[in-house]
Structures are given as C-alpha cells and as structure tokens.
Amino acid sequence: SKLKEGLSKTKKNLTEQIENIIYSHRKIDDEFLEELEEILITSDMGVETTLDIIEYIKEQVKKNKIEDTGEIKNLIKTYLANMLEEHEVNEEESNAQKVILVVGVNGVGKTTSIGKMAYRLKSSGKSVIVAAADTFRAAAVEQLKEWCTRADVEIISSENGSDPASVIYDAIQSAKARKSDILICDTAGRLHNKVNLMNELSKMFKILDREYSQATIDVYLVIDATTGQNGIIQAKLFGEACKINGLILTKLDGTAKGGIAFPIVKELNIPIKYIGVGEQIDDLQTFDAKEFVNAIFE
Ligand code: GDP
Q1: pLDDT tens, residue by residue, 179-222
Q2: Ligand 1: which atom is nearest the Cα of residue 116?
Q3: Scanning 6, 97, 165, 213, which has the fewest C-beta atoms within 10 Å of its C-beta?
Q4: Subunit notes for this chain (predicted)?
Q5: 189 Cβ below 6 A of ligand 1
Q6: Tens digit of each residue's pLDDT (9 = 90 or more) over 89-125
Q7: Is the CB of 278 under 6 A from ligand 1?
Q8: Which residues of 82-114 are buried (b: 16+ CB within 10 A; e: fewer)?
Q9: What is the reported pTM?
Q10: Whose CA is nearest to atom 19 of ligand 1?
Q11: Listing from the earlier edge strand, what are the strands of the sheet with 272-276?
C-alpha cells in the first residue's frame, strides 16, 4: 500500500537495526535493552517515549516471563499502538458546520496539505470552501488556486495582498450562503514570534466568533516529518500560542524519521489527523494508529 511504501525508509531504519540486535542477542537482558534504547533514541523516537517503551518491555518481560528477543517487535508494536490510541480523540459525526484553520512554518507542506485535504473532504461528499488567507505569499495563493481547481472546490482569495481578515470574512459569507460543510482557512499563522502569531490568530477567531458562531473551529498544525526533532519544537511553540486540535504530518515518504510521529503525539498530546505520503492530490491519508504502527514494524 501507499502507506507501507511511504514508510519504507522509516521501517528499514528502525526494524533492520532492531532485527540485528535480535540476532546478536538471544535473551532479553540489560545489554540488549541498552542497545535497543540507543536505536530508538537515534531513530527520532525521543528520549521520553523511548524510556517508556523500555519500561513497558521490562514490565512485560517480568510479568509474562518473556526471554526471547524475538518477541521484542511485538512488544514495541503493542506499546506504540496503545499509546497512539490513548491520545486519539473520537470525533462524533456531526452535521455542524466546521472551520479548519491551518497553521505551520513555511515549507512544511501547508499549501499542498490544504489542497489534498479539500480534495479528500470533497470526495467524501462534503461541500468545501477554501480561504486563501495567507495573503503575504502570492505564489502560495496561486498554488492553492491550482489545487482547488483540481479538487473542484471553491476558493476565496483577495486581490493584491489585502488583509487576511477580509479574506476570512468573505469566505465566511460564502460558506454561510452556500451552507458549506467545511471551510478550510490557510493562514499566515506562522511563527515569527509567539505574540505575533497569537495576534494574527485572535483576529481570525474574533471574526469567526462574530460572523460564524454556529461553526466549530479546529486548528491544525502542519509538521514536516523530515525535520525530525525540530517538528516537536515547532509543535511546542505553536501549542503555547494557540490550542491545536490536530496535526498533519507531511513528507513521511522519503524520510527515515517517521518515528517522530510517536513522541509528537505522546509529548504534545495532540492527535495526528492526516499524514502526507507523496506529492499527488490523493497522497494525504487519515491517520490510523494500528495501520501506522504495522506499516513500520511488520
Ligand atoms: P508550504 O510552504 O508550507 O505551503 O509548503 P508547500 O505546500 O508549498 O510544500 C513544499 C514542498 O513540499 C512542495 O514541493 C510539496 O510538493 C512538498 N510536499 C508537501 N507535502 C508532501 C508530502 O507529503 N510528500 C512529499 N514527498 N512532498 C510533499
């Protein structure tokens, strides 16, 4: 599958190393666990998540008298799938209108992900409008227009760099007039500094609150998986400026750093909503914890 293909480098990096130590150690002992710890930490799993995995393995080994190192991949899989599922938020299917504000630093794949998300939602039968409110980047607006044409979704943009707030305002009026299910707003919400970001977002929230109070608002942060630990730092900083409800983890294809998904969810307690596994319009998938873990460890 596309997911397995996309995660193949991450899988190769992690499982090959783990398999090597499985073959060189028959028994799960301290030396084995130390080597495992090192592999996990250097595979972008993060210190906190790694130590928790090791702790879980020790518990299970003791409780179930497991000795054979061949069991280790199953233990890791169980731990990670459970951890991801604990942090999942089960959204109730509702008919309420919804706004998704999309934030993220330049280059992470924000524009592309919005296009793909619009396509996905539209294909699933939702009516979608996109607001090109990242008005500072003319090229990004043009790119977003192209994605929206391909997705067959209406896009609201402004002429020559007017205020993002006025784009949001116009988009809300369209969404209300057409009774759209989902309004996806690209935003200039990026991290120059925290105060700046908070100001930009609070302007948008104010307009949404005033003009579109019937809609629920989600904030999705886009993170580039290829940046590894940097993604965690970004997520922490954004999280200090606004409440993030979901993550879009992009560029999982072609990176060995896909393990970053785990510490991001664990340390930030934000669920991953979508993952990007390629550059085509249908290369955005909804995140499924079990599938993701299996694609890496099976
Ligand atoms: P923005 O600056 O955050 O809006 O980033 P863009 O959406 O323009 O994306 C930057 C680059 O990353 C583009 O070349 C995209 O094609 C690429 N990109 C985005 N998402 C993915 C992904 O999931 N996989 C791959 N391979 N490339 C991606």
Answers
A1: 999 999 999 877 777 888 888 889 999 999 999 999 999 999 99
A2: 20
A3: 213
A4: Part of the signal recognition particle protein translocation system, which is composed of SRP and FtsY.
A5: no
A6: 777 667 789 999 999 999 999 999 999 999 999 999 9
A7: yes
A8: ebbeeeeeeeeeeeebbbbbbbbbeebbbbbbb
A9: 0.94
A10: 109
A11: 154-156, 128-133, 182-187, 98-103, 216-224, 246-250, 272-276, 284-286
